[in-house]
Amino acid sequence: MRIAINTGGGDAPGLNAVVRAAVLSAERRGWDVVGIRRGYDGLFNLGGVVPLDGTAVRGITHLGGTILGTTNRGSPFSFPVEQPDGSVRLVDRSDEVIERMKRLRIDCLIAVGGDGSLRIASELAGKGLNVIGVPKTIDNDLHATQVTFGFHTAVQTATDAIDKLHSTAEAHQRIMVVELMGRHAGWIALFAGFAATADAILIPEVPYDIEKVAAKIRQRYREGPEFAIVVVAEGAKPKGGEVSYLEETGPGGGRRLGGVAKRVSRQLQELTGHESRSLVLGHLQRGGRPIAFDRLLSLRFGSAAIELAAEGRFGCMVALDAPVVKAVPLAEAVARIKTVPQEHEVVMAARGMGISFGD
User: Fold this and answer.
1) Whole-number mean pLDDT of the chain?
2) Which of 180, 182, 169 is CA-nearest to residue 217?
3) Burial letters for 223-251: b for 16+ Cβ neighbours within 10 Å, e otherwise?
């Protein structure tokens, strides 16, 4: 067989490990492997498709990022094409993807990505392309797998950062509000906030009442050390209110989430009378070496994808159903996102310990 691999969407620790496992597993079967640079962009650009073998993937398991590059604005179904007048028009180039794959003699595409990238893969599968998906997102919001690689490394990065905030917050008797990634799902904020002993955790699934958060902070100052840590996911919003947006636009001209930590910090300072500062951890959560858990999961996913290709089980995504890695239909995998349930055991444990969710 001849296998193609691409990585799409936001980068996540563990991408390179998936690529290495897939390449080595395919090579041992005598198969050829190529990598498509920057999602599907490489199919339309000279030099955008590169051969991958054991030498090309040597020593990359521990590296963050992706040797293939990635993009979150290159959907072949709405591909940006610059017009003669300088404007950009979105065009459907999916048929070109199918044709290019045929010319390259690709028997199967291994698409590594999150909900957006795998939705594209599912649509391409619907057009007849042999596709196997590998779930990747630090947000951990793909419901068909128990966990996605990159998530636990992001949680570790966020936890380390919050740990460091404790000392400076205590030294200045401040409220520190840290904003973590999580557009629609608050998994990173929940796990990192709980692990780092935050006083309040605000997530998209639980609209918050800022007065109740302030009450928790006032109690903290009365009864304990005179400082407080508040962790907030970028998609958190107040009851009856909207999420916060930055002034600049995101890919495709859409509004970009952000600014909730600054808003919460300002409100808490006004309501409590205590000095408050905000911090946005941002893309630090995506960077760096994957921790051992994510390396192991990535390597298992990459190897499992080749097994599915060998069995001819296309149109599927590999998924963790501990202790095994199984296959689930791609269409099912992207049907909905996985949000934090109100009754999740970490939520209940945090509430039991007095951590406020603002509700």
Assistant:
1) 93
2) 169
3) eeeebbbbbbbbbbbbeeeebbeeeeeee
29-68 core/surface letters (b: 16 or more CB in 10 A; e: else) = eebbbbbbbbbbbbbbeeebbeebeeeebeebbebbbbbb
290 touches 13 (CB < 8 A): yes
Q: Give the pLDDT of residue 248.
A: 61
Tokens at residue 66, please? Answer: 């992706």
Same domain, 282 and 296: no
Whether the CB-CB separation of 247 and 215 falls below 8 Å is answered with: no
Whether 226 is covered by a domain: the verdict is yes
Helix axes 151-172, 187-195, angle to 10 degrees: 50
Which tens digit of pLDDT belongs to each residue from 40-67? 999 998 889 999 999 999 999 999 999 9
pTM of full prediction above 0.90 = yes
142 shares its domain with 69: yes
Q: Tokens 């990173």 map to which residue?
A: 188
Given a cut of 90, whether residue 73 has pLDDT beyond it is: no
Burial of 209: CB neighbours in 10 Å, binned 0-12, 13-18, 19+ = middle
The active-site residue, picked from 11, 41, 115, 139, is 139
- Give yes or no for a cis peptide into 323 (omega within 30° of 0): yes
Q: Kindly state whether residue 351 falls inside one of the protein's structural domains.
A: no
Residue 82 in any domain: the answer is yes
21 and 108 belong to one structural domain: yes
Q: Where are the beta strands (DSSP E) in the chain?
A: 2-7, 32-36, 49-52, 79-82, 88-91, 108-113, 131-135, 175-180, 200-202, 228-233, 245-249, 255-257, 276-280, 316-321, 324-329
Burial status of residue 276 (CB atoms within 10 A of its CB: 0-12, 13-18, 19 or more) = buried
Task: Please confirm, yes or no, whether 160 is among the known catalytic residues.
Answer: no
Q: What is the CATH number of the domain that holds 209?
A: 3.40.50.460
297: enclosing H helix or E strand: helix 292-311
Write out pLDDT tens, residues 141-177.
999 999 999 999 999 999 999 999 999 999 999 999 9
Domain total of the chain: 2
What is the residue range of 129's domain? 2-149+290-333
